[in-house]
Amino acid sequence: MSALNVGAKARNADMAARRWPADLSEVPYWVFQDEDVYRAEQKNVFHGQMWNYLCLEAELAEPGDFCATFIGEQPVLVTRDHDGEIYAFENRCAHRGSLLAMEHYGHAQNFTCVYHAWTYNLQGDLTGVAFEDGIGGKGGMGTDFCKAAHSPRRLRLANVHGLIFGSLNNDVPEIEEYLGQEILDCIERLLGGRKPVVLGRYTQGLPNNWKLYVENVKDSYHASILHLFFTTFGLNKLNQKGGIIVSPNGAHHVSWSAINRDAENREYYKDQGIRSDAEYQLEDPSLVDSFSEVGDDVTLQILSVAPGFVLQQIQNSIAVRQVLPTGVDSTDLHWTLLGFEDDTEDQQLIRLKQSNLVGSAGYVSMEDGAIGGFVQRGIAGASSEFATVQMGGKDAVSSESRVTEASIRGFWKFYRDAMGFAIEEDK
Amino acid sequence: MSVDAFTLISRAQGSYVRAIDDGPIEDWPEHFTDDAFYTVTTADNHRRGLPAGVIWANNKAMLRDRISALKEANIYEPHAYRHLLGQPAILSEEGDTVACETSFLVIRITGNGPTDIFASGRYLDEYVLGHGTALLKQRVVVCDSSRTDTLLVLPL
Ligand code: FES
Ligand SMILES: [Fe+2]
Q1: Cα separations in angstroms, A2 against A16, A170, B132
Q2: Is the predicted pLDDT of residue A276 greater than 70, yes or no?
């Protein structure tokens, strides 16, 4: 057994020896701080029984298009081959481990490793070894070397309405089962039958553990408290209805709100409850002019899929976010802003204006970039203390109220099982 | 190249960075025409012709809204910028309209603490020259990197 295997085994045993409260409303702070936990997550979470978001099918429009992304910290390549199918495999040369592709989004007919020029086709099969037969009968690979036995590992893939998910785990359930019907329905609501178009991309570096961002996304409680943009400028929509959905396994969630047609009259798309008595007003309130995104009254749908994927509708700002850990206290958040192929010019203009609501400079989301860092710094020295997430009870089920932390509890339920912690007896 | 355009633009750029770095920040939108286009994007988006970036505005009112939001609504740790600009490269002059490009480096000082390189890139500009003034009709801020640390609230 290699030293590395011994290390991994020891870490798993170490995780099983860690005690996690049975009460879902207690979250020990060490989970955001511990280097061993971070290492174990790579295997137990990102390479555990999970589907990881990789990219959009629309980003691989042509044969030869590829995307170099990550599952946790591990680099992977997603490609479209000439048979029209999408493939994904480790972005690691089978020879001595160099990256095969470095561009985030690119186009290639094959991948040639820069180090010793081993070549792979778009499906990740090793097709060429430089000087395989040596030169002049000298050198070269042994006769027992078989290229077919030396290819990067291939990922299992799933395509959910144009979202490509991948896994290196053979035991992960089918994606439909993994997500559950309600999550599938909400993805379909936004993306079903539509052709997304990438409007722009950027990465936001977060000074915190990746799980603090995941908690933030699932936290429907903070929205109107931390984010004051809508309130300050009197843009709060009146009489809204909404709720949260927690998937049966706890892992995924949707937070949504909609215009309440019973309580409001006409005209609300144009003038969504803009209060004239707000102290401050936007000089250009056309920022919040909206159209019905898919013909219904839902104006907000934040959907997360564990471990680190978010699909967002905030009015007509549609985006996907990929949460990638880069260290115990650093995370990269990849934003991809979307429109759709049949958007009119006016609709695209609205999407561009509303792009100001989200992202690193987003009026209603910039705070989320900083809050994780405030927590990370706040909990320094408190690794034996616990966060308390009791808003809306102690279980992890769907609710009509958004003043709840139920979807956060759901995430921890799913996470602690994946990590294999010892669950403490109820007190 | 006329020396006048270069001087007017240099003067305008000095005033622009002063408004952001030393204030008052309310002066920042006044460096633009009413129908100005301002966006902060990444070199990658720019190269691919993707229209959306980190900030997108197609009039001066939206720029003023940026300032009132950062003063009245958004929550962030106090910080300041120090802009270092290269010389403007004048690319073309047609009537009173000048196209030019300027490189920038922005250093961010968080509270009293860390001094970090926050952004580098170039301004792709269109200036309109008036009587002794140069106003931005278009500023496309192309950041070299696609990655922003934590958040971007003060403009670039
Ligand atoms: S490491 Fe790739 S060819 Fe040697
Ligand atoms: Fe938030």
Answers
A1: 21, 23, 74
A2: no
Q: Are A333 and A285 in contact (CB under 8 A)?
A: no
Which residues share a beta bridge with A423?
Answer: A20
A361: nearest CB among B54, B73, B147: B54
C-alpha triplet A338, A332, A298: angle, nearest 5°? 35
A60: phi then psi, degrees, rounded to nearest 5: -120, 60
Other CB atoms within a 10 A radius of the CB of residue A81 amount to 16
What b-and-e string marks burial along A272-297, b requiring 16 or more CB atoms within 10 Å of the CB?
Answer: bbbeeeeeebbebbebbbbeebeeeb
How far is it, in rounded angstroms, from Cα B124 to Cα B98? 11
Q: Do the domain assignments include residue B152?
A: no
- With H, G, I as helix, E, B as strand and everything else as coil, classify residue A223: helix
Q: What is the amino acid identity at position B33? A: T
Q: Are A202 and A365 in contact (CB under 8 A)?
A: no
The number of domains in chain B is: 1
Domain for residue B105, yes or no? yes
Q: Are A406 and A244 in contact (CB under 8 A)?
A: yes
B156 in a domain, yes or no? Answer: no
Which residues from A are below 8 Å from B44, CB to CB? 104, 201
DSSP A148-214: GG--PPBPEEEEETTEEEEES-SSPPPHHHHH-HHHHHHHHHHHTT--EEEEEEEEEEESS-HHHHH
3-class DSSP state for residue A95? coil
CATH of the domain at B23: 3.10.450.50
Which amino acid is it at B94? E
Residue B151 lies in a domain: no
Q: What is the tens place of the pLDDT at every residue in A192-228?
A: 999 999 999 999 999 999 999 999 999 988 887 888 8
CA distance B139 to chain A (A): 16
pLDDT, one tens digit per residue, over A29-78 is 999 999 999 999 999 999 999 999 999 999 999 999 999 999 999 999 99
Answer yes or no: do A361 and B152 touch at CB < 8 A. Answer: yes
Task: Decide if A126 contacts A148 (C-beta within 8 A).
Answer: yes
In 10 A of CB B21, how many CB atoms?
Answer: 17
Q: Using a CB-CB distance cutoff of 8 angstroms, which residues of chain B are in contact with residue A231?
A: 73
Smallest CA–CA separation between A71 and chain B, in Å? Answer: 19
Smallest Cβ–Cβ distance between A373 and the set B73, B150, B153 belongs to: B150
| pTM for the full predicted model | 0.94
Out of A92, A110, A116, mutate this one to test ligand 1's pocket (max ligand atoms within 8 Å of CB): namely A116
Parent domain of B109: 3-143
- In the structure, ligand 2 is a single-atom ion and the residues with CB under 5 Å from it are A 368
Whether the bond into A196 is cis, omega within 30 of 0: no
Q: Does B149 touch chain A (CB under 8 A)?
A: yes
ipTM of the complex: 0.97
Distance from C-alpha of B133 to C-alpha of B130, rounded to nearest angstrom: 5
Name residues contacting ligand 1 (CB within 6 A): A 93, 95-98, 113, 115-116, 118
